[in-house]
Specification:
This protein folds into three domains: about 120 residues, 3-Layer(aba) Sandwich (Rossmann fold), CATH 3.40.50; about 150 residues, ATP-grasp fold, B domain (D-amino Acid Aminotransferase, Chain A, domain 1); about 70 residues, 2-Layer Sandwich (Dna Ligase, domain 1). The protein is built from eleven helices and 14 strands. Strands 9, 10, 11, 12, 13 and 14 form a six-stranded antiparallel beta sheet that branches. A four-stranded mixed beta sheet has the order 3-2-1-4, sandwiched between helices. A four-stranded antiparallel beta sheet has the order 5-8-6-7. Helix 1 links the parallel strand 1 and strand 2. The longest helix has 19 residues.
């Protein structure tokens, strides 16, 4: 019996394109002897469109960009999660990046429908998407990280000079300005002076109402992948060596303008600390399924956690599947494990008693 898998991709997000690339890669890797693939596309306008069951890999992203029915908008209907037999799909795989997908919104919808799904739940997804909340939780868990400050748009508009002075007094230059609720390096700027800081605030606030500013540290960027539910496992480490000033959107997803070194050339002690911190962060956020944990390793050997990504990409340039491949789990098996973990997590939740 094949597993009826619903692939949910696209999304009303600045990371729509990344999601499409992820969907393409996953579809190519799925074993059609084991899975029945049901594509569910969310347009950039937020419309939901279900495509016909896929009988094989697709050759282009355009084949997965379905249009709403003429005369209708294809707003969400719960029946979109049913197969051709009229029964619920066995499990949903949200391949959504950024707001309105990776942030707990879709996860909450699937929880209300009591449908199994791959990946992190509502809390972990929401906290992992909001860099400020995430870092506050990491601080409570005692995880070492860079100094940071956060601002909301209305606060900044009411006193821009005060905001800039706070950054300069607390953090100094260089610093990084980021939207609090985006990934894939969208809207991020590195600032070396006041004029760059002012432009960076304007840029970041176009993508979110809340931003975070972090100290710029001279450090290596090392990442590990985490897989599991209550007993998570950690992959070997990989290093990102940008050929540009920092790891921006274009370098990450478009021109491959980085070197990915797997395994990273780090000491056993550094790896052990990183591994322990990754698991601690995973449990602090109550993660399930998967995350990619990103670290800074300073010149003096200090290990600082930067962030976790609760839905890392599966594009050809993505670190998450590459780390597991070098750890001994190839791409198709990785997807199957994630589906199994989603089923496992759902079954565990069914044990919860809701009456008394």
């Amino acid at each position: 019996m094949k597993t009826k898998l619903g692939l949910l991709y696209g999304g009303k997000s600045a990371e729509h394109k990344v999601s499409m690339q992820t969907a393409m890669a996953v579809i190519k890797a799925l074993d059609l002897e084991k899975f029945e693939i049901n594509p569910i596309y969310i347009t950039v306008d937020g419309n939901w469109v279900k495509g016909e069951q896929l009988m094989g890999p697709v050759s282009s992203i355009e084949e997965l960009q379905y249009k709403p029915l003429e005369g209708g908008t294809n707003q969400f209907d719960p029946s979109i999660f049913k197969g051709e037999d009229g029964k619920d799909l066995d499990i949903i795989f949200p391949l959504l990046h950024g707001p309105n997908g990776e942030d707990g919104t879709v996860q909450g919808l699937l929880e209300l429908l009591n449908l199994p799904y791959v990946g992190n739940g509502v809390l972990a997804s929401a906290a992992g998407m909001d860099k400020v909340v995430m870092k506050n939780i990491f601080a409570e868990a005692g995880l070492a990280q860079v100094d940071y400050s956060s601002f909301i748009r209305s606060e900044w508009e009411a006193g821009k000079e005060t905001a800039y002075e706070k950054v300069e007094e607390k953090l100094g230059y260089p610093c990084f300005v980021k939207p609090a609720n985006l990934g894939s390096s969208v809207g991020i700027s590195k600032c070396k002076n006041r004029s760059e800081l002012e432009e960076a605030f304007k840029e970041a606030f176009t993508f979110d109402r809340k931003i975070i500013v972090e100290v710029g540290v001279k450090a290596r960027e090392i990442e590990v992948a985490v897989l599991g539910n209550d007993d998570p496992k950690v992959s070997i480490a990989g290093e990102i060596v940008p050929k540009k000033d920092f790891y921006d959107y274009k370098a990450k997803y478009e021109d491959g303008n980085t070197a990915l070194i797997i395994p990273a050339e780090i000491s056993n002690d550094t790896y052990s600390r990183m591994k322990e911190m990754a698991v601690r962060a995973y449990k602090a956020l109550d993660c399930s399924g998967l995350v990619r944990a990103d670290f800074f390793v300073a010149e003096n050997g200090t290990v600082l956690i930067n962030e976790v990504n609760t839905m890392p990409g599966f594009t050809p340039f993505s670190m998450f599947p590459l780390l597991w491949k070098h750890t001994g789990i190839d791409y198709p098996e990785l997807i199957e494990r994630l589906v199994s973990l989603g089923m496992e997590r759902h079954a565990e939740k069914q044990k919860i008693k809701y009456t008394f």
